[in-house]
Amino acid sequence: xxxxxxxxxxxxxxxxxxxxxxxxxxxxxxxxxxxxxxxxxxxxxxxxxxxxxxxxxxxxxxxxxxxxxxxxxxxxxxxxxxxxxxxxxxxxxxxxxxxxxxxxxxxxxxxxxxxxxxxxxxxxxxxxxxxxxxxxxxxxxxxxxxxxxxxxxxxxxxxx
Length: 160
Ligand code: HEC
Known about the structure:
Elements: H1 3-37, E1 67-68, E2 71-72, H2 83-90, H3 96-100, H4 106-119, H5 128-139
Antiparallel strand pairs: 1-2
Heme C binds at residues 89-90, 92-94, 98-99, 102, 112-113, 116, 120-122, 132, 136.
Keywords: Membrane, Transmembrane, Transmembrane helix
Protein name: Sulfite dehydrogenase (Cytochrome) subunit SorB
GO molecular function, one term: electron transfer activity
């Protein structure tokens, strides 16, 4: 082998080495970036078992059903007989506000419950229905509306 060919051969070997080193560095970088994004390598975890999602309660355990100034803090319901029956049956689909912002007579509360049972999959309330309806009719009854106040300082005009 001539000196020139020997040199070419060595150059080729160095060149191959460089490419290999470069490949290793590239792979290492890709892996390092991946490890940063997914440190537990969860994408490679073949364990199919689902992990439970832990939701932190923002309300302390003791305060969960705390009542202050006659108001059930968690829901805003008025504290009275049947409160927890109402909380347990009427807050799982919509907020308590949907209930407390309404004021109805007993008949209309029953009708609202029937409507939810017929169209919104509300369950049969059984003997809790009386407790709930009584609670609602008592604490969320229509505000009695008296006669409106007399009009004063009105400028009347003649109809022609
Ligand atoms: C199974 C689910 C579910 C449960 C449980 C439930 N509701 Fe509802 N309720 C609904 C849906 C759905 C609506 C309509 C929500 C909307 O319009 O965005 C609704 C609407 C209402 C409304 C508003 C009605 C109107 O005319 O606008 C009131 C008041 C109400 N619910 C009271 C109650 C009471 C009291 C209870 C407990 C007995 C209760 N809900 C339990 C599903 C439910």
